[in-house]
Amino acid sequence: MKSKYNNNSPIVVHAPNWVGDHAMAFPFYLTLRELFPDYPKILLGRSWISSLVPEGIFDKIIIADKNKSFAKSFTEKHPPKPFLAVTLSPSFRSALTLHKLKPELIIGYKTDFRNFLLKYPPARGSQRIPPLYIHEHRALSYIRLLTPFFPNNQTAENYFAEFAHYTWRFPIKKKKKEHLEELKKTHKIGSKSILLCPGSVAPSKIYPVEHLVQLIEIIFFRKFASEILLVGSHIEKPFAQEILRLLPEKLRPKVKDITTQTSLNELIHLMREAKAVIANDSGVAHLTSLAQVPLVSFQGMGRKEETVPLNYQKQILHKQLSCSPCMKKNCPRIKDKLQCLKDITPEEVADSLEKLI
Which residues contact 312 (CB under 8 A, 6 or more apart)? Predict the structure, then answer.
């Protein structure tokens, strides 16, 4: 689509603050490129953003320095004022950040008391930005933010259908290849591992460690893989250490803890060489949609229809309880806490994994 705006001012996107949301935003980034092919595009985000950049879309990535605001970093590195700024974060701060850049238009959902900071374009007939609808997939909701710029015969659903599948095989640049190869050499990592991410930012999303230990035993008993890699950030590190402590001694050499040792980019490339990934409802689960790798994941407190990973090779396990989905960071049940996850047996997980590998 040719833009009706003819100037060289950039389009700025404030990336989501969470890895999983950023992965779900890839169809949005692709839609933005199709609608505005000739505009320079800039991505603002946290430090980890530079490790997970969609190839061929953004001309610049700006990371705010520790002692500088996003706005100051932007004006120092890219003086022209943007014509369009979009925040994919629901926070007040993200809208305020974009407001300071003084763009012609500021688009985002009217949440968190930030309506007065947004500058929507005039609606064309029914093509106005709808309110946030929490019962549809977040990737589709992101695309809806661009509704006023769609050709008359297009809808957000059209772009979502076109790009959700494309996202699954989206090109990610390989960075620090030497580090990745050294990591594989040091830990003797093969090409047919199973990756397991045992943590999450919310306690109500974490599958019990004791279940994971039983699952690992079943995986080796059924000969699904010759090794398992425990992956993730500092959040996952304690869970990985507990798994190794609880494992039978004879299995410990086959389970390798590489948490905190990979960037997001490197983790995706390890995924692409793996047989499958097992992960909680977390950013790592969403990265599988960019890695072409089978996924087994668990749905506890969240809304499946809103945040299920965009992965066409997946098994999502969940128990529909009367309290599901609670959307609480900590399980609110007085008795039988985390029953929605504890009731998923290791055997069920192993059976789901067997369907994919």
Answer: 165, 168
